[in-house]
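Async update (no meeting this week)

Hi team, since we skipped the sync, here's where things stand on the single-chain job. The sequence we agreed to prioritize is pasted below, unchanged from the tracker. I ran it this morning and attached the output directly underneath so nobody has to dig for it. Comments welcome in thread, and please keep replies under the output.
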Amino acid sequence: MIALIFGGRSAEHRVSLRSAATIHAALVELGHQVHCIGIDQKGNWRYQGKPDVCPSEVDGKASIVSLCPGRRSLTYAVDRHVAVDIQIDLLFPALHGQWGEDGSIQGLAAMCGIPCVGTGILGSAVSMDKDMTKRLLEYSGVSVAPWIAMRAMRPWEEVVECLGSTFVFVKPANSGSSIGVSRVSSASEYAEAYTAAAQIDTKVLVEAEILGREIECGVLESASGLRASVLGEVVTKHGIKFYDYHAKYDVAGAVELCVPCELPHQIVNSIQELSKTIFRCLALSGYARIDFFLESNGAILLNEVNTLPGFTSASMFPKMFQKSGFTLPRLVGEIVDHAVSCGERL
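Output:
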């Protein structure tokens, strides 16, 4: 029995619903019994049943689900006098952003003794915080874009001097899907962007703009070890400043996703091996997507790490593995099999 968890309180609620629909279809095709648990935008877990098709919205009137530490089960009330226990073998979070990728649900699953798909508490928490990710990887010898992390806005002149650039990106330290991210080049734009990012997270990152190609790589873990996918490239069209949430999900044709992308064999190998190194360094598990910048001089810089990559029609992770020989059911099956094998050790 698999509990597919989707929705959530984060700004990526709707993206999560789209990922869940894709994952649900693959799980059903594989023959799994799937219980759908939708988290509404207030944070309530609601039982959505075992539908043939994953709900496109969280039913806010459905029964609230509770978990009991030490028991691999979910409980929901039918009425005041009748409660139903559902035995669960595995949690599959199709969540994005805070309370999904940051170790929160992973910790809850661990406390309840329920195996959970993907990276555990430590790797999830570190990778969600872009500042901590950069600190750890830079210490380990991985090149990253120059950045400043702050909890109070520093003067624009100081930021420019520190980063050596008047073109910078301002973003929440803990967020995904490019939500709250702004590209700025003046003091007034910077102040406005900082305010927007600070509404999402108490820690804000300012990064120097990197002029280079945006290259992505998927990593999949199985009993035989780590496998890196073919590489993908995000190419923004004219008029699109950068690959933000709007360009990803709202504007048709705003970007071109090139999978596989055209790169020399040596660079492909370097990025694939670096992706595996980063995966191990951050204590990741199961699967992840690693994003890079490739500069014109051949330098490879880490952009960010995603421990629960999307499974929408616009998502690179499934596209890259499809071109690596993995159908969607096979890819999801590998993810489930690895999580089950890890869960047997709980």
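Quick observations from my side:
The chain has three domains: 2-116, 126-143+211-343, 147-208.
The mean pLDDT is 91.
Reply here if anything looks off.
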